[in-house]
Structure formats: C-alpha cells, structure tokens
Amino acid sequence: MCFATLRNLSLIALGFGLASPAFADLDAALATADLSMGERVFKKCAACHTVELGGKKKAGPNIYGTVGGPVAAGEGFKYSKALIEYGGEWTLERLDAFLTKPKAEVKGTKMTFAGLRKESDRANLIAYLNTFSDNPIEFGATEASAAAVKEEEYEFGILFDAPGVETTYYACTACHSEMIVAQQGLTREHWDELFEHMVEEHGMSEIEEPDRTEILDYLDAHYNEDRPNFPRPLGN
User: Fold this and answer.
1) CB of 82 closer than 8 Å to CB of 108
2) pTM of the prediction?
3) DSSP character at residue 164
4) Which of 74, 128, 167, 180 could make a disulfide contact with 61, Cβ separation 3.0–4.6 Å?
5) Burial letters 2-17, b for 16+ CB under 10 A, else e
C-alpha cells in the first residue's frame, strides 16, 4: 500500500471522527525523521532480526519490506498464532503501536522486545526500516544535518559513558534493562560464558565480531567484579 493511499484513508477517517491523534503525531514525526538515528535504534532489533534483502532469520524473521507490507509473511519463519491472527498489513499506525509495546498490541506474540517508549525513536526506526523495501513509502524522511543536531539527553541509561557503551547498550537492551548488565559484575571470561549461556539456553543470537570483542572490552573495563562504575551517577 502506498503512502498516498494511507494518508487518504487517514483523512477519510478524520472526516468520520475516527482518526487517532497518535497517527497525526506519527505523520509529523515521520516527515522529519532522522535515518541515522533510526539506524542506531535498529541495533536493538539486530540481536533478533536482519533487515537487508535476503537476510537470514535469527531468533526473529528477516524484516525486509515490513513497512506497509503484510504481517507474518517472512518465508521460512514460524510465527505465533497471535501474530498470524493479527494479520493484515503493517500500516504506519499499526507498526507504531506494535513498536510501542509489542505484547500489548499483539497479545500472545512470541516477541520478547519490551518496546520503544519515545515517539522519536519509533519514527526514526520506521523511517530507517522503510528504506529496506522494494517500494519504500515516500514521507519525506531526511537525515538531520550536523548543524541541526541538538544536544541530546544521554541515551544509554545508567551505563558508563565510554567507548563501547553504544554497542553494549543496544545489544543487551533488546531483551533486558541495562540495570541488569550494570549489576552483574563479572570477569571477562564469565561475561563471555554468559553470552554462550544466553545463546544455548535462551535462544539469543550469537553476537558477531567485531561487536562481541567491543562489548567484552567495555564490560571488562567498567563492569568487572569490582563494578567500578556502578552505582555512581554518570558524570560523577
């Protein structure tokens, strides 16, 4: 379904008093979405999904062509009964709702991702995913120029701000709070063993290089057994 059609449907619904205010906000957010930020947010998804054409399935399906495409249509992946019954297409509004809190939008989904609370994160992610499609929707998403980038709130929770924090944060918070990471306090060897345990016992996808080494370096330096950077506030 093209964006023009989706927009027309939303206008028709508005005329009958059925349009969702959230969709109007999403429409505006998508018009100024930042693809580079969307790529960063996708790192949370990359633990379970590939997005490029022909990408392999992981714990979750390849999601090329998801934006505007059919629900539960990836080849060779066994979807939950709940998602199959949800059916239809991934319209912008439905995708936004699902990314907000998957288990609330599709009760019974196997997807363990907690969701994205910030509207800007969801809009940026949808805009980024939209570029991986045979027929991308044209909603005017543009990358923010360096001059337009505002000073942003620190986005990696309580994790210490140092090289490797971004890769660690997005790899781990796909399924867990960063608080769990910061409270562990393990040796490098034990962190590595924990990764293997998560793959073998909990279905986590392997963390590929160079990300694995970068994460281990970061955890070894900042969340070893003495946990030098927890629980002191960041910046102190």
Assistant:
1) yes
2) 0.62
3) T
4) 74
5) ebeebeeebeeeeeee
